[in-house]
Amino acid sequence: MPDVEIVDLPALRVGVLQGYLVQAMETWQRFGELVDHTNIDNEPGVARAAILPSDVIRGQVSGPPDRVPYNAALVAPAGIALPAGLTEDSVPAGRYARMRYVGPYEGLAGAWREFTQDWLPTSGHTVGNGVCFEVYHDRPDTVADAQYRTDLHIPMA
Hints:
Blueprint: E1 4-9, E2 12-20, H1 24-35, E3 47-53, H2 55-58, E4 69-75, E5 87-91, E6 94-102, H3 108-123, E7 131-136, E8 149-155
Antiparallel strand pairs: 1-6, 2-4, 2-5, 3-4, 3-7, 6-8, 7-8
């Protein structure tokens, strides 16, 4: 069973590049073109993130599957200028279930399955409205794949 904690988070300021889940890799490629040449990743409190509707976790996505929103994002505290091409937005404050995954990005789908299919049904909690998101604490150029730390978040009702 995965190790999950329930946390109360403040609103997070994010700069987003909007895309669709079926085109996540293309979205990240475009995001990299906007962000990689800046030094923003070295600023305190800045992290990369991915954001998608909590309806995905509940299996209640409306509309065609190729139109499920997926945003590549940069979490950045107030006072840090966002790179051109990103739209300022926020992840709502609230109560979230958080699970830490350590390993290569290729294992994230399995981590989400463990979170949503193993932990969630037996947790006594239900998914709330809002967004699910991942926060990437490491960059591929700074640590080995097996050491990447990613926090997965699901809003709680």
